[in-house]
Amino acid sequence: MGYDAVLPGEADFFGGILLLRGHEKKGVPFVCLNLVSAQTGNPVFSPYRRFSRGGVTVLVTGLASGSVFPKGELAGLGLKVLPPGEALPSLFARQEGEADVVIVLSHLGFSEDRELARRAGRPLIILGAHSRMPVWMTEAGSDSILSIPQDRGRVLQEISVGSVAGAPGKGPAGFADGSLAAQYEAKRSELSARGKEMDRRERDLAERTLTAYGRLLAVPEGKRLITPRAQPLDETVPDDPEMVRMHGEYRKTLGQLARTRRPGPAGPTEYRGHAACGRCHPENHAGWRKEPHAVAHGTLAGQGDGANPDCLPCHVTGYGKGGYRTGGPKGLEGVGCEACHGPGKGHPGKKMTIPGEPACRSCHEGLGPFPFAEKRRLLGCVRAKDG
Questions:
Q1: How far is CA 220 from each of CA 173, 182, 253, rounded to the nearest angstrom?
Q2: Can you tell me whether residue 227 is helix, strand or coil?
Q3: Measured between alpha carbons, how far is 341 from 270 in angstroms, rounded to an integer?
Q4: Residue 102 in 3-state DSSP?
Q5: How many CA atoms does the CB half-sphere of 375 hold within 13 Å?
Q6: CA of residue 330 relative to chain centroid, distance
Q7: Are 200 and 207 in contact (CB under 8 A)?
Q8: How many angstroms separate the first and last alpha carbons of the chain?
Q9: Contacts for 84 with CB less than 8 Å, ≥ 6 apart
Q10: pLDDT tens digit string along 91-141?
Q11: 269: how many CB neighbours lie within 10 A of its CB?
């Protein structure tokens, strides 16, 4: 697909290190600076990749976090994660760390990314992860750029980089982006329209993003070193025919497996199913039956993804938590009461959870056609007396 560098994440290690090694031999350009062998201390993957684009030397490195791995998994793989604050300065101290632009692919998380920018000692472009809210900001006092694109590949964050005009031996940046002002106005309008319904953290990030765009706008276009542009990968971007074919084969294979594989033993489960809730809460159950949540799995199946493990957690009840299983017993299709209120075992003696915003945000944080802007309606189904 033309990638210059790829930082493997926690899910990439599920198949084992040998599988990743096989992908690497086939040309996947993995890069990670601080994931090393526990026995030898040598990096598992290439610690960095360097290349030139338009006369600009770019160095890309990656930083993993031990916290994204399940407990004991690193030791089981014979690996360890070095502290990022030690690994990155060590790279810069060596001659091979020299470059016009340094890009850090990060699995550290938003707070650690900011700390990294403060302590790096040189400007960085940090591309982060593990946040459902898109972030674009300049880190005060560091001249670094921190960008966390919207997740699940739904937005392409384009960052144009060039040399400052008038620098010795180098021409104008030439990356003036006419849409930057439009993006600034769009973000300001969003903050004005939705600011009151945002929580404190979301509003803080939106304000920082607006400030970052404002700082860039203050630099004359001919001297702008870094220019961002967010390109939503929506229906206006045509699908690649080969990817459509591959995705179709993937869906077909998942469907065949769901029809032909026998589910394993059910084992004990704390989920009781939608009908059990309806016996004591008939009015709530009747109202739920009219909601899109009730037919969420049917909607998914109608699109050919009824067995897709990437989609099921938000379209059924208790998937991966001892509830819904592909090919298993019926009664947990759709997003039912137990998806938000918790498993029903022990109820009515056990008080059920009264869900707040996190329960809705887990699936409605800008994903799909039902964003969290409808939070008041979504939370309207909850009444304390029904607990």
A1: 11, 16, 53
A2: strand
A3: 12
A4: strand
A5: 19
A6: 31
A7: no
A8: 51
A9: 34, 63, 65, 108, 112, 116
A10: 888 766 578 888 999 999 888 888 888 888 788 889 988 765 666 666 656
A11: 18
- Compute the chain's Rg from CA coordinates: 24
Cα angle 117, 108, 91 (rounded to 5 degrees) comes to: 60
Three-class secondary structure assignment of 258-285: HHHCCCCCCCCCCCCCHHHHHHHCHHHH
Tokens of 210: 């607006």
- C-alpha count within 13 angstroms, C-beta hemisphere, residue 188: 10
Domains of the chain and any CATH numbers: 1-130 (3.60.21.10), 241-386 (1.10.1130.10)
pLDDT tens figures, 315-329: 999 988 888 887 777
In the chain, the amino acid numbered 112 is E
Tell me the two tokens of residue 207.
């304000």
CA separation for the pair 106, 31 (Å, rounded): 11
Whole-prediction pTM value? Answer: 0.62
